[in-house]
User: What shape does this take?
Amino acid sequence: MKNLSRNVILSSMLISTVLIAPMAQANTSFDTTPSWNSSDSIAPFGNPDTTTYGETFICPVDNVLNDFTFYIKPDSGVSLSVKAYVYQWSGSLFGGGGGGAVGSSMFASGSSMIINDDTMFNPVTVNTGGTTLTAGGQYVAFLTVSNPSDYSDTTGTSVWGMNLYSHVSNDGSGGFVFYNNGNNFSALNSNVWDNFADFGDLAWKANFSAGRADVPEPGSVASMIGISVFGAGIVRRRRSK
Assistant: This one.
């Protein structure tokens, strides 16, 4: 009986290890703000000027994008109506090299965000709800006022925090990209974006977590337990013979 108990305990420990292991999650963050002096900027973003700003990146091993942040200061009296997106990116990750968004959106904000505080650079954080990307894939996270309703509701322009003409550490291996697409939102994933210069990295952040490993279905767990206990019984009976 002692041998049977020992085998059942060991089998149960093994099952517990299998079930608990997938719960552990690592995290990765991109953050260029330590290199930003809180004043350098790029402009103008809004209506009637450039309507799409974003940052390209390579997805890390921790491939669930939870949120991203840009730093924006509207001009005095201006209200921006923006939506946020994440798309796959094709071509050069840097401005001046040629590249553009492709395919369908990996993430699209459901409603417009209104930005109208013109006293300082404010962090504009987009919560993606946990968007699963492909590790090693190229992507772009961006804000745009090019949806026709946002374009008409945007009353001017703004400046964005920028690490001008430099790619800084922990930037996601990409860079600032933009598109003068007016109120033609559909052009974003059908044309090459503006590519006449590499301006560096936006002041931005992005937070990722590890994708959850597959967890056995309840029925499979019960089967595993049954098999382990059954196996332990065989060991016991063989020793008895």
The chain has three helices and 13 strands.
